[in-house]
Every structure is written in structure tokens, then in C-alpha cells.
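Consider this:
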Amino acid sequence: MAPYAAITEKFGVQIDFRPFFLIEPLSSREFRAQRLNILDYTAIVFSARHTIDAFFHLCEELRVKVPETMKYFCTTEAVAMYLQKHIVFRKRKIFYGNGTPESVMALIGPKHKGEKFLIATTSHGSSDAITRLFEAAKLSFNTAVFVKPVSQDLHDLDLGAYELAVFYNPSDVKSLQENFPSFKGEGLKFITFGKHIVEAMEEAGLPIEIKAPTPQAPSAAKAIEIYLQGK
């Protein structure tokens, strides 16, 4: 929150934080619709902590006993350490990268290329970057959705009271449309952070004031600052 507090102090603006959607685990019925058997896989790739919770919750609900031989490849150390909530942390079966898909591939290398990987995702299409690398390396893998975005009730929100909104996820756009079906963007400017959100904004016909991240705006906070400086 520190960068936003600095913006508030520097420009004298008010910044409100309001989630447009929440991430919830799939039900066992929703997961079964993917026709996946967790025990068919010998390694799983995690990129988010809420996906870890959903995975183990589903395993418990489906009465799937995850074998101790299962290997876990995580995008970051923070995600890997979160596994301790559910399993005993053993270095021989838990590996973590530096946040990039390439770092996960480096962990796999020749040593683990014979594993059957299950890539845990937040939603369809959210794992495109890493699946392309898995395909190029000709690894045996599949993707599985374990969580879903659920739009929040925003009918108490007065969009007209705001000049600028920052969107990070296509689910932000979906929630906006569900809560305000007649909204066309009038009077509200948008900053987007990330690649996937841009396509969703364009499909919704909503103009983007500033796209981030860029070298000039590596963070959403910096993009807000650039916008305010240009007024």
C-alpha cells in the first residue's frame, strides 16, 4: 500500500480498493467435468497459493490420497513454502523458480523430464505462457482448473464518483458488465495491468488510458502517477 499512500499524499487524491471478483475453489462436480484423474500424474505445477488450497481441498473431498512421491514445481519460493500448510516440506520433491515460466522449465531440465505433469491453473487460458514451453520441450502434461473467479455485488458502487479505475484481470471486466450492463465507459478512464486484461477491455469496447506494465510504468501505481502528472 505504500506506493498508493505516497500518491495520495503527493497529488491529494482519494484511492479506494474494491475487489470486483473473488477467487473460489471449484466444487468436486465442477472439477469432475474436466475428466482428469489426479493420480495419473507424478508432478504438479503451482503458481498461486489459493490454487494449492483448492487442490488439497478437492483431493480430500474426492478422497484422493496424494502419494508422497508426488513432485511439486512452484513458480516462486513463497508459493512453494505455502505447501507446508498441507504437506511436509521436503527439498527432494519441492522445487521453486523465480516467478517466470522459464525458471520452472530450468528446474525440470533433463532430470525430471520423464514426469507426467499437471499444471494447476486459475482459469482457462491463464497458463498459456508455461504450456507453450511444455509443448516445445515435448513434456507429458495436462492443465487443470482448480479455482474460479466469482463476480461480487457492486450495486452499491457509484461509478460516477470516480475518475480512474485500475483493472488487472478479465474477470474485472466481466464483473463490471454483470453489475452495470448499460455502462459504456462514460466519464471513467481505465488503466490496465497485464496482457490478458487488454483483450477483454477491447472486446467490451472500453478505452484504455494507460497500459501497464511498460518500461515507463512497471507497476499500476506508477501508471496512476503518470496519469495524474499528465492532467
The beta strands are 21-25, 43-46, 71-74, 94-96, 116-121, 140-145, 147-151, 164-167, 189-193, 210-212.
